[in-house]
Each structure stands twice: as structure tokens, then as C-alpha cells.
Amino acid sequence: MGDETTIAAVFEPLIRAALGPASSVRFEFWDGSAIEPGGTCTGTMRVRSQDALSHLVWAPGELGLARAFVSGTVDLDGDIFAILRSLQSTASDDARLGLGAAWKAIGAARELGALTRRPPPPPEEARPRRGRRHSRGRDAAAISHHYDVGNDFYRLVLGPSMTYSCARFVGPDDDGHGGADGTVTLADAQAAKHDLVCRKLGLAERPGMRLLDVGCGWGSMAMHAASVYDARVVGVTISGAQAQLARRRVDEAGLGAKVEIRLSDYRELGGEEFDAISSIGMFEHVGTKRAAEYFDTLRALLPPGGRLLNHAISSPGGSTMTGRSFIGRYVFPDGELIDVGEVVLAMQRAGFEVRDVEALREHYALTLRRWVANLEGDWDRAVALSSAGRARIWRLYMAASALGFEDGGLGIHQVLGVVPDARGWVGMPGTRRVWG
């Protein structure tokens, strides 16, 4: 590459071919050169060093770009939602790069040293797991990778509710079935979600019911059920950090006599019986091959009339978070999103009568936008509590997920199942009205 040629000039044909002239993202390179957007600029992608190119050369596609972003050799400056939306909407599946431009880009990458040195992946990247996929040991390692990154970090992102699942934004003038504007606090929206789950499970109908909360997180759902509906709750998690803080929160709230937090796998609960079961944001870690075992296990814990509320992210047709994807490598190792139709079928096969399915995807988009705002609003502290790479991962994955919920690529559903008795009795209310 000659001294008079800028990096932007060499790579502009590649970027134009991939994104088209309508892209609103500005690209700036470490030599100070830049590729200007075709219209109004929504933000800037800063390529800070040749290591960014090396990541892309050695791991082409999503994983290489993720490594560059997590390592800090690529930055996104500006409204991350607008930047990601622009990149998504202008990228062309059938883009074709001319042979001459491609060879020129490859030659420039070679001259810059991007082809000769393979950079190591950032330390935040999950390493390959040992054991069978979704075995207890491998699940424990995957859960630890995602959840044991620091309770204080999660408190900063999630806010005082410490609830890591879709909230429900219901305003004072809302009819109870739609999203509300920004006047509803995140804490109130999370409490509204917990309350909806409690009412669907019938906790308001009979105080003192015994509830199992599978994947209890930091205990927020268990505490709500105990304090508002006088439920006796067992919460289980396989994250040591979560269990430690959940127990402390329960004690500080004076709920120790009603709430028990166990560091335990749901598959270790045989022989116990509960009146109702909530599973909120945990099913994504179960996997398609274990779904039948999961529902059979929970079914065996319930008597006739017992209810299960399964609250989980879904994807049309289902999707597996592979090790070649950003989400699979950095965020949810071994995670799987199961089509809601398959969830309903699996619950029915396990002996549940499915009585209600509610979609909340717009609410999750709002929830994620609030989490991103919390993270960006206290960025330096977030980095200090975890690492620069970890904070970058959470910013990117939450922003991208919000867009997925907004455009329907991702969904989230609450599926309510009931165990009928021999006569078919399930003890359900006649309409949804009692749930609000």
C-alpha cells in the first residue's frame, strides 16, 4: 500500500458493497481517514488498529467482529441502537464485491500484517465446555460464565429490582395488556411482571401456597410472592453468586421464614411437592433435547390443579447459540431458543393442559433499552466492577437483543400449564380478567 493511499480508500469499495450507499454509519480508521455515510450520520464505527482486521481475517463474520469489539480495537460511538439498526437494514445479503477490490483489500490486509499474526481472543470469551451439552456439570459452567460476573455489576445494570428478565410496563391508564411510556419506572415494571406471574399461578386465590421458583436469580420473584401473597417459596439457582446475594436479600427483607434459597439444580428436587411453579428466564438454558425431561421433572412436582408458568425467550423455528456466534461464545454458552409452538407441545406431552399463552416482546425491548441506559449512564463504574470487555459485551448484546424484540426476530412468551385431575378439573378462572 503506497504512502499516499489511505486505509479508508482501500476498504471503501468493500464497505460500500456490503452496506450499500444508504448506510448512515461513518467508518473511521486508525490513520485518521474515514468513510463518510451516504446520508445523515447516526454514529461512528472506529477501527482503532490492524488487530481489528486480524480478528476478522482469522474468524470471518460475526465472531471476528465481536472479538474486535470486545477487545476494543473496534468502537461504536453514538446511539448504539441507531448504529446497529442502520448496519442491519443496509447490509445486503446478495452484495457482490468486485474481484479487483477484493484482491486490493486482501493485499492491504497482508501489508498491514493482518494475515500474519493471529490475535488471541479476549479473556471474556467462553472457552470450549467439557462434557455432554446440557449435562449438569456443563450447565453449571455455562451458568457461572454468564451470572457469576459480579453482583454489583448486575445491580448497576438491572437497577434496584435485581431482576434479569422481561419487565411489564403497565401505566395507571393502561388496560393491562400493552406497553406504557417512559413514566413507568423499571422497578415498577418488574414488580408488575412478578405480580402477573403470581396471579396467573393462583397465589392470590389461596394464601400460603407452596411455590417453587426455578432459576430464582437474586430472589426478587420469591420475595414478591412471599411478601404480597404469603407464599412459602423455594428458589433454586445453580449460580453461587446469585444464591449468596439472594439469601442476604431475603434475610434483610425479614422473609427468612417464608423463603428458602437453594444452590441446586432443578433436577435434584425429586420427591417434593409444590402447589405452583414459576420458571422465569431459565428455560433458555435447558435446550431442545432436555425440554421433555425439564417438563416431566416439573410435572412430577405438582399435584392435580397445580400450575406451571414458563416465561422464556423464543425464536420462530428455534435457534441454537453456537460457538461461532457472538451470543454463544460471549453471552449464553449452550443457550437455545425454542419455538413457542414446540414449548406448548412439550408441556402437553408432559401432562399439562396449556391454558394461556401471552407474548411480551415489546415489553422486553423496553426493558433492554432501560438496562442499556443504566450501563451507559455509569460506564466507568461498570468497567471497574467487571472489565472493559465485559461491559462492552453487555452493551452490544442488550442493544442488539432490543432490536430483535422490536422487529419480531425474537419473542418472549409466558405459557401457563395446569395439571388436570382424573375428571379433567383444573380449577382455572373463567377468563383472564382476574389477572389484570
Summarize the structure in words:
This protein is α/β, with parallel strands linked by helices and 436 residues long. It has two domains: 7-111, 2-Layer Sandwich (Nonspecific Lipid-transfer Protein, Chain A); 136-435, Vaccinia Virus protein VP39 (Rossmann fold). Helix content is 42%, strand content 15%. The chain has 16 helices and 13 strands. The strands form three sheets. The chain has a seven-stranded mixed beta sheet with strand order 7-6-5-8-9-13-12, sandwiched between helices. It has a four-stranded mixed beta sheet with strand order 2-1-3-4. Strands 10-11 form a two-stranded antiparallel ribbon. Helix 3 (62-71) packs across helix 16 (388-407), helix 14 runs antiparallel to helix 16 and helix 15 (379-385) packs across helix 16 (388-407). Mean pLDDT is 87; it is low at 175-180. Residues 112-140 are annotated as: Disordered. Keywords: Lipid metabolism, Methyltransferase, S-adenosyl-L-methionine, Transferase. This is SAM-dependent methyltransferase. InterPro entries: CFA/CMAS, CMAS, SAM-dependent_MTases_sf.
